[in-house]
Amino acid sequence: APPGDSNLSMPGVAPYSPICVLREEPEGTLHVARAPDGKLVGLLEPRDDLPRLSPSTTDTQIFAPRQLVGPSAARRAVVDVEPSVRLGSLLAEGPLPPAFAARLLLDVLMSLARAHDHGQRVTVRPDRVLVGVDAQARVVVLGSEDDTMLASSLRFTAPEELEHAKDLRGDLWSAGVLFWEALVGKPLFAEHGWGLVTAIAERPLPRVADVRPELAPLQPFLDRMLSRDPEARFGSAREAAAAWIDAASEADGIASRDAFEVLVTSRAEAAFAAQEAALLEASRVPLATFEREIATAVAKRPVPRAPDPDLTFTGSISTTTGALGMPSRLDPALVRIALIAFSIAFVLGALARAMG
User: Fold this and answer.
1) Which end of the chain has fewer CB atoms within 10 angstroms, the N or the C?
2) Which of 44, 106, 127 is nearest to 80 (CA)?
């Protein structure tokens, strides 16, 4: 569904109310939803064949569930909601200039380090890197790693993983393959089927210096990232990031965040505009929905129990009748209804002032 398509007919997942589609993701459909506190959030409806959703985390340096809601048969993931695109759509426009690719890889390595801190493996590939409108790149940790051997991701699979020997250093190999493609603009491995498996396992790898001689200073770094011996790779994503800063300084350096934002926006302008429009419309729609939720909550509130005569205070502050014939002790149910009515009036007034 295109951004902005209404999905008010989609069943909500308490306490979140879906409003419209923000974008389609490889893992499923991302909806804009209203949270209980009134804020807009993302609500991911996973595709049917996604093995399972990843555990939730509050770490904003990775794109991961912030909360898992709903029954196990209809689990949803609450995620960040901002205009974003997958890296693959940016690379479809051609290779990145070296300094911009350097900025991208630094973001990816630091985000990968945070994922590893949480015990999450990430086979780094174009559809598992999310680039936001703020030009911040984050690895995506939404679903299971059980699909890493699919044909679509095989070319990013580390040699040892072909024999099912997995550890976190396999993610550094995949990051090296991704970096090659971002720099050169074509796959590191062009083979298919068993030819691809053979190329990953044993064929000599092309050198980036042979394709782009000006990038020769980056070759030692790539040699370690793409070593077939996991022990010869960097020990962690953070170690690789530190080494990458040194290597990039000998080439074109690392582009500033602002410069990278200009490049990202130029390549994803239409996608960002559509998502920003959907978010703007969503910010206007949910007020009526929010009012209905309040009314439903009021209707479902429990009826206050009559006070136990044995526990009623019988001193001088006991219930009396005022001058107007009204009880001086307020009914708690009436107080709650009055507060809810005041809250609705306040929200409507604020919206009217903002739109006026």
Assistant:
1) C
2) 44
The two structure tokens encoding residue 287: 């007020």
Cα-based angle 154, 160, 165 (whole degrees, multiple of 5):
105
Q: Is the peptide bond before 309 cis (omega within 30 degrees of 0)?
A: no
Cα separation, 90 vs 113, in Å, equals: 23
The model's pTM: 0.76
Domains and CATH numbers, the chain: 1-81 (3.30.200), 84-268 (1.10.510.10)
- Each residue's pLDDT tens digit, 292-335: 555 565 566 565 554 454 444 444 444 444 444 444 455 565 65
From the number of C-beta atoms within 10 Å of its C-beta (0-12, 13-18, 19+), residue 153 rates as middle
117-142 burial: b if 16+ Cβ within 10 Å, else e: eeebbbbbbbbbbbbbbebbbbbbbb
Token pair of 7 as six digits: 């999905």
